[in-house]
Amino acid sequence: MAQDHYATLGLSKGASEDEVRKAYRDLARKYHPDLNPEDDAAKKKFHEVQAAFEVLNDPKKRELYDRYGANYEAMSGAGGARGGWPGGAPGGGGAGEYEFDINDIFGGGGGGATGGGGFADLFRQFRTPGAGGAGGAGRERHGRAAAQRGADVSHEITVPFATAVLGGTAALQLSRATGKQETISVQVPAGITSGKKIRLRGQGNPSPNGGADGDILLTVRVAGHPLFERTGNRLDLRVPITLAEAAAGGKIDVPTPHGAVTLSVPPGSSSGKRLRVRGHGVRPKSGEPGDLYVELQVVLPEGLTDEDRSQLVEIAGRHPENPRSTLKW
User: Fold this and answer.
1) Domain range spanning residue 182?
2) Which of 2, 87, 194, 212 could bridge to 70 as Cys pair (CB 3.0-4.6 Å)?
3) Which of 173, 202, 222 is the last residue of a domain?
């Protein structure tokens, strides 16, 4: 039974050129012999996909195929050069107007899908850079340009402070050139900083002629945090303590990106005293983890009475100090 090229690509007869190319790229990647080395059925399917695309991607071949179906090659020579395309162009033109090579359908040189030239050129993304096939992959053949890679697209993305510290996912809202709105999930590595780049391979503009799609290049901006401040892999946090905790010391619970920790406040602590929590800062994907520095801030109780204030003044009088003695212009 003759192959139905539209059914092979999963398309209807009225499919657009873009739909033909997209279906081809998806199926070719799925059944490519390099990705299915032991699967004979996948190799057969790959050849069918190649043959279907060869016809439906060429406006002249597709027109004849739509008109005559599986017999389009035999009918193509009617009214023109005898023997159809191998001896002359469709419609009676000379070979210089349209050159046809049956090897273009089957991969060329008996090498199958992974041989050089023809449709093998479209699969350079599956091959080792610089590797050449028997027919000279990467060169222009039969007046047709080699597959062209789609253009890269640049965007910015703002990620939450916590996501930048711990890693995770962020949503990127895109407006494509076609007007289509799209949301892409972006994997954010732990420890990323503002200005860093993330590359989303194959998410950029499509190729104009069946090549690899371009990439999206994201510039990362990290949002601020209402409490934590970050310097490299170091985090700083101001933590309020009571007057009693400052005077007598005590235990306080402090949040960190990696879970709450309990710290000991030394007796007689003043505002500005810093406590270091090792390894509880930013833990990047590679490199040493940073530390968390907790800065204590003494907070007086509300609703002090005149008697309470008098007692504080009396205590201060027994311990005369000038905490501003080091302040100078």
Assistant:
1) 153-222
2) 2
3) 222
